[in-house]
Structure formats: C-alpha cells, structure tokens
Amino acid sequence: MTARIIVALDYADAAQAIHLAQRLDPTRCRLKVGKELFTASGPVVVERLQAMGFAVFLDLKFHDIPQTVARASRAAARLGVWMMNLHASGGGRMMAAAREAIDQESHHPLLIAVTVLTSMDEEGLREIGVFTSPLSQVHRLANLAAHSGMDGVVCSAQEAAVLRQAHPQLLLVTPGIRPAHSAADDQRRILTPAQALRAGADHLVIGRPITAAADPAGALADILAEMDRASAGGG
Ligand SMILES: O=C(O)c1cc(=O)[nH]c(=O)n1[C@@H]1O[C@H](COP(=O)(O)O)[C@@H](O)[C@H]1O
C-alpha cells in the first residue's frame, strides 16, 4: 500500500516543496513535481528530492510535435525520475517517439499518458469539439496509449475499473482523489482513496488534501489507513 500515494508538490518555489518533503517519509509516499514548481525551480528541486530518498514523478504533461517531445522525454530520463508523463491527445506518433527516445537511455522512467484531465466533464469536452462522454474518450486514448508503448495512463478513478478490465498490463495513475467530506476544488471527476483502490488504481495522486492540511503527515497516514482498511475488505 505504502508507496501507492504520490503527493503533488504544487508549490511556488523549492523552499516550500522541500519543507513539505521534510515532513514526509520516502517509504510511505512518492512525490510529484509539476509545472508550477518545475518552472520556478528547475531540475535542481528534482535532484534535491531524489537525494532525500524520494521517487519523483515529473508531471510536465508534454504535448508537442514528436521530435520535441522525444527530446524533452530524453532530458527527463536523464534527470533520473521514476515516472514522467505526456498527453495521449498528442497522438500515437508523438507517444511512440517518446518511447523510442527513452528506450535509448540507460535510465527508463515509467512513461504515462494523460487521457482526459480530471478537471474536465462532458461539457468541457464539447467545448473542444469532443462530442462523447469522458469515459469513452478516456477509453479511446487509453487504447491509443497502450498501442503506442506507454507503461500506463492517467485517468480519473471513475474510469479505472473499465480500464483495469480492458488493459490489465497498464499502470493506472489516478488524480482527482478526495477523502470523504473534503472539497472537490477544481476537480470534476473524483473518488475517495478507498474507491480508487477498489476500482483498480495502482497509484493515487493527491495534492491539496495532504499539502493544505494542518498536519500533512497525519493526513497522509489517515489516507493510508483508509486504504489498508479498503484492501482488507472493509472501508
Ligand atoms: O497528471 C496529473 O498528475 C494530473 C492529471 C489530471 O487529469 N488531473 C490532475 O489533477 N493531475 C494533477 O494531480 C494533482 C491533483 O492535485 P489535487 O487536486 O490538489 O489533489 C495536480 O498536481 C494536477 O496537476
């Protein structure tokens, strides 16, 4: 159960991210460095977190022409990160180019494709010309990701059960996780940690419910306990 949680370090600078990391235990969670923190602090923050013993998910969601994404993916692999991601909607050629670039490196991060962002709903998809449900769009992009050599996909836990059946080999990384009674914030497709686990999620990305808590380590411990209960058949 332990390292299934990835804590999203959505901070404005390295000092705040390191401060939070110092309150967490690398045997009990992994950490995610996303666009805000990486843009502000660069690779140094990734290196510092790794030196503290944390496995790092570099969440830059690459989406560009195949050559640009391939070269960016190679740079991410050279940083030694555990996991990295790109947008499946960048297409099969883009994903395959990233796969090929990473395979040529000595260190191979897990390469994960984002399907439909958890902040999107059916109306949000319509706005961008996608006239189908989030579930069917997630399904379509997960199929493409699987055929393009991805190790896994990012999806909402609401879609995890269907994808678990269709793609037993794919890692399912699920943000949009909210313990019961916590605020949804800008997320639209959410589930609790226990529900996500039961749906077949491998890794749960959790930000504000941990980082905005008065006691982040305590909030993480509570979520891990809920997951333990769920996997024991309760919760
Ligand atoms: O790739 C991601 O990690 C991601 C994909 C997605 O569809 N939805 C999503 O929320 N995320 C990330 O997961 C984290 C969720 O944070 P909280 O909403 O604070 O738990 C943020 O860092 C998002 O960037």
UniProtKB/TrEMBL annotation:
GO cellular component: cytosol
Enzyme Commission (EC) number: 4.1.1.23
One GO MF term: orotidine-5'-phosphate decarboxylase activity
Function: Catalyzes the decarboxylation of orotidine 5'-monophosphate (OMP) to uridine 5'-monophosphate (UMP).
Organism expressing this protein natively: Acidithiobacillus sulfuriphilus
Subunit comment: Homodimer.
Location of the active site: D59 (for ompdecase activity), K61 (for ompdecase activity), K61 (proton donor), D64 (for ompdecase activity)
Binding residues annotated for substrate, in chain numbering: 10, 32, 59-68, 118, 178, 187, 207-208
Reactions catalysed: orotidine 5'-phosphate + H(+) = UMP + CO2
Family note: Belongs to the OMP decarboxylase family. Type 1 subfamily.
Keyword flag Lipoprotein: no
UniProt xrefs under CDD domains: OMP_decarboxylase_like
GO biological process, one term: 'de novo' UMP biosynthetic process
UniProt pathway annotation: Pyrimidine metabolism; UMP biosynthesis via de novo pathway; UMP from orotate: step 2/2
Protein name per the record: Orotidine 5'-phosphate decarboxylase
Orotidine 5'-phosphate decarboxylase domain location: 4-223
Record keywords, A-Z: Decarboxylase, Lyase, Pyrimidine biosynthesis
